[in-house]
Amino acid sequence: MRVHIAICYGLTGVLNAVWGATLPATDARLDLGVGRLGVLLMALAVGALVAMPIAGRVADRWDGRRLLGWTLRAAAPAPLLVALAPSGEVLIAAAMGFGVLSGGLNVALSLQAVAVERALGRPVMGGMHGTWTLGAVLGGALATAGLRLGLGVQLVLVLFAGVLVVAGFAITRNLPTPADQHGADRHGAGADSGERPGGDPSAGARPGWQPSGDERQMGLVVGLGLVGAAAFLTEGAATDWAGVHATRVLGADPAVGSLVYTAFFVAMTVVRFVGDPVRARLGATATIRYAGATATAGYGLVLLSSVIETARVGTAMAGWILAGAGMAVVWPVVVSALGASGASGRRLSMVTTISYGGGLVGPALIGAVAGQAGLPVALLIPGVLAVVVAGAAPVVLARCLVAGDRAAEGGSRGGGSDAEGCDETGRPPAWVRGRSM
Questions:
Q1: Could you list the residue ranges that cross the membrane (predicted)?
Q2: What DSSP string describes 198-258?
């Protein structure tokens, strides 16, 4: 099960990278211009944000594995639609549809990754996102190579669509359940765990996390969503503005600016793969506290590089590396802890929607502030948000897990809580709670 879901993450990374890497060539082919490019990207974002909460409800009522299979298979031919689009208007419509499928796919991947963690009894979310990153790097590199070889953007897109369709159908044809991987859940009899067919993380969810309209728990959902939004905005600030900061503010040449961006991306990828063992040892709250502190130190160095006279580029690069290392684990920790605490698919999709919304708003917000006050001032925004992640995220995360504990206690009094992924008391496992809980 773990390998299957990891491959799905990798294919999704390839799909997203191909879209982004070929967009300039598609722009040239259709003569989109800045205005229509903006509308295109907005259509993609709106489609994703509309689909995410719907996907959570579908997963709760339907089957998480079927949702993943359907969305991945439907999204795989998306490059073909881009290749065949005869005009910018048709491409914008296709982008809206691709956004809808991408939003549903992101939710389905998170749900199934949570199910894998429950079955294994240890964190793997960081590695899953690391696989997505590797897929994105591979897809972007191959798309760039194809364009440089003169294949033409339409042919490149058609070739990728063919590969993704075949791979998507092959990997989702018979997705196993976590019980298939282990023969039974960690409590022994998989049939008694309350798990739905398909390994949905909402299966067996504790009563306190079922959709009940409880304002306190809705506040926790919003709080976790805001933590995710802060993380995505902080991460997006680096991916969109690190190279620009190096060239326009620090005076580096374009090659060095590209290197700064690459250093950030490499740091994030490495930490995502090594972050799971760290989280297994420290627990979610301590991990996210250290992650936020690391990112804060990184942005401190980036801001410092704008005012010092010597070693400016080296200071900024060190800062972006620390920012990438810190932000790498925040979103995986949030999703993993939310799922392990027994949240339904609807709750998880709500957190995802709020979080991705922050990632979409962030680059535009930073650009607007940079236009008025300069990029160094604008980068104060992600710097402050990194401080917020370090200080507030552990508190929100701890309250989420405490709410899960209380629900588990209520379930025990009423006959026991048997939510998969919990320990024998019905509480989230030790690697989620951390040593202090």
A1: 36-55, 91-114, 151-171, 218-238, 258-275, 287-308, 320-341, 353-371, 377-397
A2: T--TTTT--GGGSS---HHHHHHHHHHHHHHHHHHHHHHHHHHHHHHIIIIIS---HHHHH
Last residue of a domain, one of 192, 221, 248: 192
Question: What CA dihedral angle connects 253, 321, 241 and 248, to 10 degrees?
Answer: -30
Q: What residue type is 184 in one-letter code? A: A
Determine which helix (DSSP H) or strand (DSSP E) holds 162, and give its type and residue range: helix 153-172
Q: Which amino acid is at 343?
A: A
Range of the domain at 326: 213-433
Name residue 123's amino acid.
P
Residue 208 lies in a domain: no
CA distance 244 to 23: 19
Instruction: Tell me, yes or no, if the pTM score tops 0.90.
Output: no
Angle between helix 33-61 and 64-75 (nearest 10): 160
pLDDT digits (tens, 9 = 90+) for 363-419: 778 888 888 899 899 999 999 999 999 998 898 888 776 655 555 455 444 444 333
Asked which of 140, 161, 192 is the last residue of a domain, the reply is 192
- From first CA to last CA, the distance across the chain in angstroms is 30
DSSP per position, 176-198: PPHHHHHSS-TTS-GGGTTPPTT
What tens digit of pLDDT does each residue of 159-186 get?
A: 999 999 999 999 988 776 655 444 433 4
Quote the CA–CA distance of 174 and 68 in Å, as a whole number: 12
State phi, psi for 174 to the nearest 5 degrees.
-135, 65
* Residues 6+ away with beta carbon under 8 Å from 180: 1
Cβ distance 45 to 360 under 8 Å? yes
Q: Which of 75, 95, 76, 74 is nearest to 30 (CA)?
A: 95
CA neighbor of 164 nearest in space, from 48, 69, 78, 66: 78
